[in-house]
Amino acid sequence: AAMTIILGLESSCDETAAALVSADGRILAHRLATQEEAHRPYGGVVPEIAARAHVEALSPLIAAALTDAKMTLADVDVIAATAGPGLIGGVMVGLVTGKALAHAAGKPLIAVNHLEGHALSPRLADPTLQFPYLLLLVSGGHCQLLHVQGPGAYVRLATTIDDAAGEAFDKTAKLLGLGYPGGPQVEKAAALGHAKAVPLPRPLIHTEEPHFSFAGLKSAVMRAVQSGQYTTEDIAASFQQAVIDCLIDRTRRALGQSEGITALVVAGGVAANSSVRAALEALAAAHDLPFVAPPLWLCTDNAAMIAWAGAERYAVGLIDDLTVPARPRWPL
Ligand code: KG4
Ligand code: ZN
């Protein structure tokens, strides 16, 4: 029989995306429309604008992805759509579209947790990556350490007690007047500054507490900005180093409790930061573990990771009913 083909849909935040992936991990097409320009005047994602933009963008992206792969809907075996967590209006657009396609074409639907998309994306990038692995999931909405044991099988070792790491980057960018989206702007500015120029806290490091915290760091950045003593570049570099020190300290602690893992893995938008990647790579090497990070485009939101999570779930029989709800909150 021909290889199973999965159509993936993503619409949980400010990217609309459609992708076609085969069950053996080939990316046959991936299309993405970002809403950055629509949200830029507001300095952040406006849910109502996002939902309307998803409605306009999604169907043409699906058509384009099918054309890229020289396919029609009849060639698709499984429909996978993000069902949460995220902005509910956007999530509903993608999930309802997925349900309609699944119903019309008589194909199974898989409701994918967006976080599972990120969590399994490293296996799409590197087919040799085996379960279980330790995952640092760092995005705009989440900052977690997870034991990934298989599709649908996650043990959370740590989460953030306040802001997510990406959120801290975005808020710092706003404080520094670097605009939206913040992470890449802060990384650019940081490259021109000194990481030791501004004394900033490293919340929770060296404590027995397993979790992350970034709110105190954000407040310290605000005070540094208001003091007028430092350049934007020095604040950006010092902030980025403080985040990295926190990520590394917490991840090192989790590695101590992770016997039998095959690799240290990073995923999510913040994993697009090259200094974050380099620090994690060094940590993995110090523990004699392989380090796996998806390519940059697969770290930030996309539909290939949703299609792939659908492929992994389909392979173990995790299929959903068309009554499955959209969920604004949905822990892994
Ligand atoms: O995974 P993602 O695309 O969306 C969510 O599911 O949240 O992650 C977006 C987050 C944003 O907070 C963005 O500022 C951050 O990832 N980000 C970065 C970089 N690129 C994206 N943070 C630091 N450095 C980057 N280069
Ligand atoms: Zn994401």
TrEMBL record:
Substrate binds at L137, V138, S139, G140, G141, D170, G183, E187, N273. SUPFAM superfamilies: Actin-like ATPase domain. Keywords: Acyltransferase, Cytoplasm, Iron, Metal-binding, Transferase, tRNA processing. Residues 27-308 form the Gcp-like domain. It is an enzyme of class 2 (transferase). Required for the formation of a threonylcarbamoyl group on adenosine at position 37 (t(6)A37) in tRNAs that read codons beginning with adenine. Is involved in the transfer of the threonylcarbamoyl moiety of threonylcarbamoyl-AMP (TC-AMP) to the N6 group of A37, together with TsaE and TsaB. TsaD likely plays a direct catalytic role in this reaction. Belongs to the KAE1 / TsaD family. This is tRNA N6-adenosine threonylcarbamoyltransferase. The lineage of its organism: Bacteria, Pseudomonadati, Pseudomonadota, Alphaproteobacteria, Sphingomonadales. The gene is tsaD.
